[in-house]
Amino acid sequence: MLYSRVMTTPDEHLAARRILSVTEEELQRLILDIHDGPVQKLFAAVSQLNALEARMRQAGAAADWLADLARVEGVLEAALGEVRWSIGTWRPPGFARRDLISMIEGLILQHEEFTDSRVELDVLGQLPPVSLPAKIALYRLLQEALSNAYRHAGVKQVRVRLLARGPAVRLEVLDRGRGFTPPPLVGPQATERAEHIGLRGMRERVALVGGTLTLESAPGQGTRIVVEVPADG
After folding, report:
1. pLDDT (tens digit, 9 = 90+) per residue, 176-229?
2. Which end of the chain has fewer CB atoms at under 10 Å, N or C?
3. Of the residues 90, 106, 127, the one at which a domain ends
4. Domain match, 82 and 104 both
5. What's the pLDDT band for 4 if we cut at 50, 70, 90?
6. Which CATH number is 194's domain given?
7. Residue 173's closest CA among 103, 229, 112, 121?
């Protein structure tokens, strides 16, 4: 199977350990801005259209006008639903106060509920205490991996393993889906293409905590993602 591998050293990114926490705060501020701005405006627009439709029906408006209005309402309601789903997906799971396993379990339950998929979680042995940057990195990496499996792999079952590897925590995500040819993630040929933004995000999050990312896949052979990050990363 083809694979791409990202390796970093703690010395290269010692100053960047706190960037994940800051980035997470910025993400939550953005989510709040979207909720208080566009979401509320979309909801108000749908409500006004519903009221307008009711008045038009009372006035005996033409059927084709009512049909056109209903289609507009449907588009706006669908857009509102998608925005709310995205906001719900990226809300903070309580990184500072919750342990890694409970956060991972919550993420998996949420993914299963939203996608009607099944995720098998195996926690092998006892995990060491995990720092806040490492928890954020592992959570967001798994979130992206599950999303990719659902959207691209063509399967509704994924296996996730979580275990200790010395002073590091190892996360493995495996699916038996359609697979793909991974782009290079390191070196002069490393991908910067827009369609690989999820993989690039994984690469950068791992790098910020001094971890490693291994991506193994090939057409027709599924995908295996392995992440190792220092527990105190």
Report:
1. 988 888 776 776 767 677 667 777 788 888 888 888 899 998 898 899 999 999
2. N
3. 90
4. no
5. very low
6. 3.30.565.10
7. 121
One-letter amino acid at 119 equals V
Considering the domain architecture, whether residues 83 and 194 belong to the same structural domain is answered as no
pTM above 0.90, yes or no: no
Tokens of 30: 């953005």
Sequence-distant (≥ 6) Cβ neighbours of residue 8 within 8 angstroms: 206, 207, 210, 211, 212
Count: domains in the chain:
2
Which residue, among 75, 211, 192, has the nearest Cα to 137 in the 3D structure? Answer: 211
CA 85, CA 78: separation in Å to the nearest integer? 11
Query: What's at 169, amino acid-wise?
Result: V
CA–CA separation, 173 and 161 (whole Å): 7
Secondary structure class of 117 (helix, strand, coil): coil
**Which range marks the domain in which residue 142 is found?**
2-21+97-230
